[in-house]
Every structure is written in structure tokens, then in C-alpha cells.
Amino acid sequence: MPQRTASTAAHQPAGTPVPPRLRGYRYVGVIGKGSTAYVFRYRQEATERDVAIKVGTTHLDSKAGARFKTEAVFMAKLQHPNILTVHGAGVTDDGRPYTIFEYAPNGSVKDIIAKQGVYSVEKTLDYGVQLASALYLAHRSNTVHRDLKTSNILITAQGLPAIADFGIATNIYDHRSTGYSPPWAPPEVIASHGGGDDRSDIYSLAATLYAMLAGKSPFEYAYDPHTIDELVDCILHKPVPPINRADVPQSLQRVLLKALDPDPAHRYFTALEFARALQEVQIQLYGHATPVNVQGIEPYPTRAAMATAGAQGALPATPEAKPRNRKPLIITAIVVAVLVVFGVVFAQFILPNIDHSGDARTATVVNPGMNGSPGNDDGDDDDDAMTSVPAPIELSGKYVNNNTEVKFTWSNPDPQDGDRYAWSLVSNSGDGDQANAKLVDEPTATVPATDGGPTCIKVSILRQDRQLSSDAVTACAAK
Length: 479
Fold this sequence. Notes:
Layout: H1 6-11, E1 25-33, E2 37-44, E3 49-56, H2 62-77, E4 86-91, E5 97-102, H3 109-116, H4 121-140, E6 143-144, E7 153-155, E8 161-163, E9 170-171, H5 187-190, H6 198-214, H7 218-223, H8 228-237, H9 250-259, H10 271-286, H11 303-314, H12 326-350, E10 354-356, E11 362-365, H13 382-387, E12 393-400, E13 405-411, E14 420-426, E15 438-440, E16 444-448, E17 455-462, E18 473-477
Antiparallel strand pairs: 1-2, 2-3, 3-5, 4-5, 6-9, 7-8, 10-11, 11-12, 12-13, 13-16, 14-15, 14-17, 17-18
């Protein structure tokens, strides 16, 4: 067993296990500890690069040892700027398993909240899109984290938020109960209805973003429980309240509350849908969005949404000449904004999707980009084409019930067992109503007819493994 050296002892807090001697690495200090491991800082001698090495606190049995090795295998496969990189793994001379990670010198989100206070709305949205992208990549690789929280989001040397500690990650279809942190865990995990899945990760990421804005996890912030039992009771039986910050817009509050819904079926279908909802809030607030960074996935939302934001952002500020002229100028600016936005949306979004029929009560809808084939020849790699979920085809709408409703139907170009369909109404701005998206088993949906304009919906295919169509199909019916 390695002996404690004088230099090592000088760096060791009382009660900390002896850091292992690892060939090619020089011990620097302690970074932190968890329930089953310590994390030490080492210097890789060949490169003079600092790394973080997670070392088990005890000799692990075969099952626990396999779990620790599984973490290294999963993490090494998940190559993403917002997932902490794994450099290697092994077993120490005294039988303790270890994993070598990228060193994140800027601490965790938890540390930053404690030292600097809550995050801005803009930074929270930026982090949210990046982390949801990383989470979607993990879920697409059949890996769930199961313990996302502020202490597991580290800030890299490049200033990027990165998901760390996939120590309880497991196959997405393995629903056995496993470890979790109550403040961040969804009700179904706390109630032992399963160990968690991708929708549980979405909940925990939303709770983490909530804490970035509120300073605490949702139920700690809202109800100030004094014990774990009180906290668990709140999570199981009380609603998540809005964040009491004047600068947190209602659009962001709605996105977080949907992701924190106690019923997993009412949350976002995938982490990608969560990322898209956060991007849409960014576009509404700032006219731009953080890109989704996943191979084979479009980095930004629909072009219609971006065009709408661009039109809004392109409007010059109205100069205020004299007090008596302020009201006419404001009215003029509003009229111009409405006309510009409607013109962009109508020309780029609604008009190309409408094919009027001779019958005033029906309208056939032509799907954008569809020529009778579900695929498109855009030069994507074969691997991406094999794994991507196609969009629905033959989407059309027909007015029914005395023109009070529109019945939409569509086809699945590649039906598979367990396929379902996610659809949402589309507003005049060209955006899908993410907060009220519906999930159906059959390729049809009947919606109330829109007064004074076309009725539009957006539809995606949802696979049994929770993958969603890369590009949703949007179409409209008009009288």
C-alpha cells in the first residue's frame, strides 16, 4: 500500500484517504469528496496538464467495481464540449478504482451561486441550451445521468458548463432504482416508481436552471423545509411556484414549469425539445439563440421563428422628439412592427404551406420540402441518416363540425413499434406552442379552428427510445 509522504501530508485535510501513487501523475491536492469517492488534483507529468482523478474510498465489491468502470466507459464515449472529458481509468495498487477526468478549474455552478449569487437570465438560458444539448446526446446514446444538480455542473477552463459525474448513469431502459439527490429528483424517482429515465434528467436539469435563477432548488426555495422528510413531502404533494424575480420573464417560467411537471408525460418529450423551448425564449428576448450542438441536429429553431425575431430586432428605435408627439410615434411603431412581422410570417411560413381547394370548407396542405419522399438529399452522412427520425409526410387539414374545428391527418414514412406523435398548435408568429404540446398514438389531431386566419400545427414522430424527428413538419389549413 502506498505510504503517505511528507509533501502529500502537507496537502491533505485531516481524515482524507491517502491519494494513490499513479505512474505518470504527480499529486497536487484535494478537490472534493462525494458519498463513495474523493476527487484529487494531479499533474500529468508528460504534458504538465492538470487532471481530476476520482478515487473510490473503499475496496469495492465486484458489482460496485463494475458500476465505477461503467462510468468511465459511458463518459469516454460521450464526446461533447458540455460533458466532462474522461482521459482514462484503472485500479490503484490497493484495489481502489479510479477515473481520470478533465480538470475544471472554475468550480461548479453550486460554488458560483454560493460565492457570487444567482445567475442572470441570459447566462441561465445560454447554459440551459448547452446542457440540454449534451443531455440529448447522452440520451441518444441510451445513457441517462440520474443525478443532475448544481454541484455536478462544472465550469471548464474554456468557461463552458460541463456535466460531470455519470457515476450512476445506466442504460436508458434500465429502470431499477439507484442513487439520487432529493432536492433535484422528480416525484416518480422519490416515490420509487423507477430509477429515472431521460424525462427524469429533463426534470433535474430544469431544477438546476431554476436554482441558477433562484439560488436554491425549487422546493427548497419555495417552502424552506427543515428536514429531508419535509422536502420529500413538498416534492410529492406541492406545486412548483414561479420564481420571485421581476427580470425572469413569464415565457421562461412556463418553460421551466413544464419541464418540472410532476407527471413525466407532461414534460418535454426530449432534451432537444427542452433546448428548443429555451432557444425560443432567447429569440423572443434577445433576437438570437445559443446553438444546439449535436451532430445531425439543426443548431437553431425553425427559420420562421428566426425570421420573426430578425424582423423584430431590425426595427429601429423610435426617436422621442417632443412629449406631445410620443403617442403617435408609439402607435406608428406598433403598426409597423405588426405589419413587418405578419408580412415575414405570411410570406415565409403560411403562404407556402397553403393550397386552397375549390371547397371552402376544406384545405389541402402541402408539406414544406416534401416531394413525395420522406428523405432529402442534403449531403448528410450515412450514419446520421440511419439514426435520424424522419418527419411525418402527407400532412393535411380539413374543416369539420360546421367549420368550428380542423382535423389534421398525416402519414409515417417509416413506422416502427412504439411510434407516437407530438403535435402543437402554431401561433401567428410561426412558433409552436411548446408548453401545450400533445402526444398521440394515431396520426391524427382535431383542433379548434382559428378565427380570422389559418389554423396551423407542427408535428413530429416520437420513437420508443424518445428520439424525435430532427425537423418537425408544420402546415396550415385555411378557408
